[in-house]
Every structure is written in C-alpha cells, then in structure tokens.
Design brief:
The protein is of the alpha/beta class and 150 residues long. The protein has one domain: Ribose 5-phosphate Isomerase B, Chain: A (3-Layer(aba) Sandwich). It is 41% helix and 17% strand. It contains 6 helices and 5 strands, in the order βαβαβαβαβαα. Strand 1, helix 1 and strand 2 form a beta-alpha-beta unit.
C-alpha cells in the first residue's frame, strides 16, 4: 500500500447500493483517502459486471490502490474482479478474513456480501482492509504464484 493518499475505487449492484452509500460517508471527512465511485447510483436492478469492471480495471492498471465491491452475496463481484491478472479480490464476511486477505494474500479488492453482513461489520471490515499492510515474507512467494510469476 502506498503511503500518503490512498486511491480507492468502489462499485456495487442494486443489492449493494445502500451499503455503498453508507460507506461513502466514511470517506467524506477522511483526508488521506480519495474515493472513486464507479456506481451503481440507485436501487434499480442492474447487472453487477457493469460496475465491477471499472473498479477491477482501475486496480489492475494501478490507477487505484485498492477497491471495494458490494453485491448481494459478494460472489458475483468477486468472480468478475478476479478475471483481471493483477487483481486479488477477496470475499470477506468477518473482520478476521478482511485482515488476513490483506496481510497474507495481498488482496487488493474487498468484496462484501451486503445481504449477509451488518452495516457495522461491513464498515469494520473496510477499515481493517484499508489499514492492514501485506506482511510479505513467507507470503510473497505464494502471492507471486497466484499471478503465475513463479
């Protein structure tokens, strides 16, 4: 993770819209985060890949440091994001999973299941995800293998 300003892209489908809007409020007073909202912008039914691709492309190209994706189960957004070679999207439903996804797997996109976690837990996981550093060390070789580098 870069020091200083952290660029974070966020996207969701209709099931994740209300949670995304709550999450955006976290960033209004934060001076060290810049949030790029890739939509959706209402609860009207949409196809989640349309909002995952802009987030995943931004992280894949290093235009965003990290991403947050939200849908009903978290599965669809996670599967779509992981199609990009430099993306390591993690579906998390506990704070410990959010922490380990960053510390051990160098996850760069957090995927949240809006229908299965409380707003409070989602916010806790986001804060943990954004503030946890990759431990590197013994985990680096494994992460390199994810990207088929070794």
């Amino acid at each position: 993770m870069k020091k200083g300003l952290l660029f974070v892209s966020i996207g969701c489908d209709h099931a994740g819209f209300l949670l995304k809007e709550k999450v955006k409020m976290l960033f209004t007073d934060e001076k060290h985060f810049i949030l790029n909202d890739c939509g959706t912008f209402s609860e009207e039914s949409v196809d989640y890949p349309d909002f995952v691709h802009p987030v995943a492309k931004s992280v894949n190209k290093d235009e965003s440091d990290l991403g947050i994706l939200i849908c009903g189960s978290g599965n669809g957004v996670c599967m779509t994001a992981n199609k990009y070679p430099n993306v390591r999207a993690a579906l998390c439903w506990t704070n410990e999973l959010a922490e380990l996804s960053r510390a051990h797997n160098d996850a760069n996109i957090l995927c949240l299941p809006a229908r299965f976690v409380s707003e409070e837990l989602a916010i806790e996981m986001i804060n943990t995800f954004l503030n946890t550093e990759f431990e590197s060390g013994r985990h680096l070789k494994r992460v390199m293998k994810i990207n088929n580098i070794l």
